[in-house]
Recover the amino acids of this structure.
């Protein structure tokens, strides 16, 4: 057993008693060393760390309590049991308050000593296991790049951890810039498929006439210009994971083909008569409300349920403002290292304005602004841009969204209505919405309405 491999330092000034204890512990599988004084014990600890110290209380001019105080100061995780011939309750209380794991009153029986050693040994094993698991989790979170300790982010971590080892299809939702691809890569990097391909495709960035060949592949001669065999993204991800970003933009025809793959695990290349069996874990993401898209007839209901086996919601930055300081530190270090520049810090007033800002572009916007600051070193520029952008538009002229309709869709619709009402006059539309002209242009660019 692991606890029987522990190294124990026996500190006892009586030679016969010291010899008896060390022989008894060695006979029970423990590795032992001994010392007759506190000074000798300190030297022994410095030369070779034991796992546990078993010390008598009275040791010449110094005491076992002096040794305990030294151990707790220098090696706080080391086990410590103290024994006293006096057996007073005061000594026991003092020892436990100073951090002893256990105490024995002399004269003690062989079995009492072994039980005390065994109890502390098992406690040390549990501490080591917990420390190892905590370290692994910390390394995993660094590896996947997810940063934040807000309660809503803890829910994301928990769900990612629970489903990463499975092949369950995952649908990641959330506003643009919240880190949906980071969550997808976390699922991949913590899975058994981490050494296989990870293929990402933005469904909204593929021309519709090329989308089928891009996703499913095409045989040579399948269409004009197809001069060679094309391997599609799904086939390229065989054995690994495919990340379908902005799945809400996928044309209806391809939704049907994707549904077939999710149901049967097979695809057919464009122009191919046969089928190809694939082993691919599917992770999809969208900033759209797919339930609303289903009700509007723009997204297949059966595909939605196939994708939404395990939903993960990435919270907007405005809902995790306690993480802004941590994210700022993370991006300052990240970009300073990226550009081989000295680390920078932000003034208190600047940090306050970052905390007060609503971050419509979420973590991506914060990362971009910090990157610019690292490159230019100009806090004032960043603060001026933030201060000119109010948190929300004036919605009094519009009907608030129904349950299930996300804010981004509503805000975009308000912008479109304002532009239509004022025949494309941006100045009047901005005034109508209660926005500065610069903030209005920012939102037009955000929703690609320019």
């Amino acid at each position: 057993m692991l606890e029987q491999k522990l190294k124990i330092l026996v500190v006892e000034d009586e030679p016969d008693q010291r010899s008896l204890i060390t022989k008894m512990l060695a006979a029970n599988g423990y590795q032992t060393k001994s010392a007759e004084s506190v000074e000798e014990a300190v030297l022994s600890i410095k030369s070779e760390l034991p796992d546990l110290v078993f010390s008598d209380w009275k040791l010449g001019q110094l005491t076992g309590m002096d040794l305990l105080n030294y151990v707790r100061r220098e090696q706080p995780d080391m086990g410590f049991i103290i024994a006293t011939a006096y057996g007073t309750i005061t000594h026991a209380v003092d020892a436990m308050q100073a951090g002893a794991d256990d105490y024995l009153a002399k004269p003690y029986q062989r079995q009492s000593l072994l039980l005390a050693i065994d109890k502390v040994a098992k406690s040390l094993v549990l501490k080591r296991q917990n420390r190892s698991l905590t370290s692994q989790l910390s390394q995993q979170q660094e590896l996947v790049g997810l940063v934040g300790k807000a309660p809503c982010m803890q829910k994301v971590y928990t769900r990612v951890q629970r489903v990463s080892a499975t092949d369950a299809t995952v649908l990641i939702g959330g506003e643009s810039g919240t880190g949906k691809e980071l969550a997808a890569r976390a699922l991949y990097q913590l899975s058994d498929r981490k050494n296989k391909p990870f293929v990402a495709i933005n469904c909204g960035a593929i021309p519709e006439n090329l989308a089928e060949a891009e996703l499913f592949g095409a045989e040579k001669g399948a269409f004009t210009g197809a001069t060679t065999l094309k391997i599609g993204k799904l086939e390229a991800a065989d054995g690994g994971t495919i990340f379908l970003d902005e799945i809400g933009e996928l044309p209806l025809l391809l939704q049907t083909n994707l549904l077939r793959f999710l149901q049967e695990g097979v695809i057919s290349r464009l122009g191919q008569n046969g089928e190809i069996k694939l082993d691919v874990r599917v992770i999809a993401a969208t900033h759209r409300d797919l339930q609303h898209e289903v009700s509007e007839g723009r997204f297949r209901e059966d595909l939605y349920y196939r994708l939404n086996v395990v939903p993960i919601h990435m919270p907007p930055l405005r809902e995790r403002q306690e993480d802004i300081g941590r994210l700022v530190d993370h991006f300052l270090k990240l970009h300073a290292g990226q550009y081989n520049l000295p680390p920078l810090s932000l003034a208190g007033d600047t940090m306050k304005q970052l905390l007060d800002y609503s971050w419509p572009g979420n973590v991506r916007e914060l990362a971009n602004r910090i990157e610019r600051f690292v490159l230019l070193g100009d806090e004032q520029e960043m603060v001026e841009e933030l201060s000119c952008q109010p948190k929300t538009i004036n919605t009094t002229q519009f009907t608030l969204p129904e349950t299930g309709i996300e804010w981004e869709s509503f805000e975009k619709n308000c912008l479109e209505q304002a532009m239509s009402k004022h025949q494309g006059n941006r100045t009047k539309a901005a005034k109508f919405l209660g926005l500065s002209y610069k903030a209005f242009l920012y939102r037009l660019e955000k929703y690609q309405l320019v």
